[in-house]
Design brief:
With 79 residues, the protein is mostly helical. Helix content is 52%, strand content 0%. The longest helix has 15 residues. It is globular. The N and C termini lie far apart (37 Å).
């Protein structure tokens, strides 16, 4: 099983999209927008690790299947 660092996991939680391919696609779209060299290195490392994973391995990581809604989306209010 692929091992992710804590920083990589934090980043993947931000870009989690349900499947390894969808998450990788969103992460790749974000990489050109990352200005901080240290965060860019983490994103690139996480992307390389995702490239070698299948959906079964990705599901074994144990992401929350329903990420919390974005505040302000859908007319909801913050608690």
């Amino acid at each position: 099983m692929t091992k992710f660092t804590v920083r990589e996991m934090d980043l993947l939680c931000l870009y989690y999209a349900g499947t390894v391919q969808e998450t990788l696609e969103i992460l790749r779209e974000a990489i050109p927008c990352i200005d901080a060299p240290d965060v860019l290195a983490v994103a690139e490392s996480a992307a390389r690790k995702l490239e070698g994973m299948n959906d079964m391995d990705f599901a074994a990581i144990g992401f929350d299947p329903e990420p919390p809604p974005v505040l302000g989306a859908g007319g909801g209010s913050a608690p």
